[in-house]
Design brief:
The complex is a heterodimer of chains A (202) and B (198). With 202 residues, chain A is an alpha+beta fold. Chain A contains seven helices and four strands, in the order ααααββααββα. Chain A is extended. Helix content of chain B is 69%, strand content 0%. The chains are: A alpha+beta (202), B mainly alpha (198). Chains A and B meet through helix 1, helix 2, helix 4 and strand 2 of A and helix 1, helix 2, helix 3, helix 4 and helix 5 of B.
């Protein structure tokens, strides 16, 4: 990959960071390689099809790939355990979102976080800085810790917001995710803001 | 790249030629960006999604398409791969570079790659991304701002702060190394750390 050297990038600290760039990623000339051309053919094939209309989206079914997507969708139809809500007792499957957004970054709850399945949002609050603010103590907080949370089904696990593929009804919703909910009076309102609905017992 | 909007015109050859040109020009760099953050299979999937999205939203793809493509790839990857997994993947790749022998190409600008990799890894995702966009991908501040979804002025501020925190982390890593006696043979301090302490 060609690098464009700017004056600023010659600064010693930036040069030091640049030196860590993996240089054997094998991407120079990849687009022209057999592998790259195969991907291009797949792209061209996909773009030969007209985008789905709303009606056809209802009829079509989505084939989803990807760990997070699969995990999230896998949770969509899960029935909440009576006493623990949608979580296991150790909090291994708790996902916290950085923002109330369909595109929010998600993080699994750090393993050492004390977890109470009856108050799962507290765990996201407790682990907030470890998940999202890893800069040195005293530094400006990049992502302020919310004061309110809501547990909603992931509104859209598709990477392009459903443009290339689609689902209908409840299948559009993914697994439970704990979102920041500041500014929203109820969980319903917060979840509705991202086109979702609250998780019972979440 | 102009895309027709009626169903019968989607396979228009002009549009596909433009898409092929876009792919030829930028796929290598978008793939490199993705490979630094995830495995090859996922990277190629996201790359494909990125160019399909560029086709569908061709009206909004600017002439300087690379930042737009990287921004799209970044968002698509964020939806596919969790933040902690991206962090881990990047850390692994940086650690591999840190272990690489031969630092001659950067001369005395670096003390130990391990310290620098540790310092980068300790930063917030936003700080790290800001630094990497400025250094690994040869983007101008304006281009990097497009990738990050902020103004050029905001990116400049973020970069300034990220550099400051990065230098602090390197200093901390260096102090930790010296306390634990990790260097049997003293190595030169990073030049920017020397400048900071002068």
């Amino acid at each position: 990959m060609k690098q464009i050297a700017t004056k600023q990038s010659q600064a010693p600290d930036l040069a030091t960071v640049r030196a860590l760039r993996p240089d054997a990623d094998g991407t120079d000339g990849w687009a022209a390689s057999a592998d790259g051309q195969a991907v291009l053919r797949e792209i061209l094939r996909r773009t030969e099809q007209p985008p789905a209309t709303v009606g056809s989206r209802k009829r079509r079914r989505l084939v989803l790939v990807g760990a997070v997507t699969a995990a999230l969708l896998g949770g969509a139809g899960a029935t909440a355990v009576a006493t623990l809500g949608p979580w296991d007792e150790h909090g291994r499957n708790v996902m916290c979102a950085r923002t109330l957004s369909a595109e929010a970054d998600l993080s699994q709850l750090p393993l050492k976080t004390k977890f109470d399945p009856r108050a799962a949002a507290r765990s996201c609050a407790a682990a907030w800085d470890r998940m999202w603010n890893q800069s040195e103590p005293g530094a400006e907080r990049v992502t302020p810790k919310p004061t309110r949370f809501a547990t909603c089904y992931h509104p859209n696990a598709q990477p392009d917001h459903g443009e290339s593929s689609d689902t209908d009804g409840q299948e559009m919703l993914g697994g439970p995710v704990i979102y920041p909910a500041d500014g929203h009076p109820t969980e319903e309102a917060a979840c509705a803001a991202i086109g979702s609905r609250p998780v019972v017992g979440g | 790249m102009r895309r027709r909007t009626t169903a019968g015109e989607h396979a228009d050859p002009d549009g596909h030629r433009a898409l092929e040109a876009l792919y030829t020009a930028h796929a290598d760099r978008v793939l490199a960006y993705l490979l630094h953050r995830t495995d090859r299979e996922t990277a190629q999937d996201i790359l494909s999604e990125t160019f399909v999205l560029a086709w569908r939203k061709s009206e909004s793809v600017p002439g300087d398409a690379l930042p737009w493509l990287l921004a799209a790839a970044r968002r698509l990857l964020a939806n596919r791969v969790r933040s902690d997994q991206r962090h881990r993947a990047l850390t692994v790749r940086m650690a591999a570079m840190a272990d690489r022998s031969g630092a001659e190409e950067i001369g005395d600008a670096i003390g130990t790659r391990t310290e620098v990799a540790a310092a980068l890894s300790a930063l917030s995702e936003q700080d790290r991304e800001t630094l990497l966009l400025s250094t690994w991908y040869g983007l101008t501040a304006r281009q990097a701002a497009v990738v990050m979804g902020c103004t050029a002025a905001a990116f400049a501020v973020r970069l300034h702060r990220a550099r400051k925190r990065f230098r602090a982390e390197v200093t901390r890593a260096e102090q930790a190394q010296s306390v634990h006696g990790a260097h049997p043979h003293p190595q030169p301090r990073p030049r920017f750390v020397q400048e900071e302490s002068a």
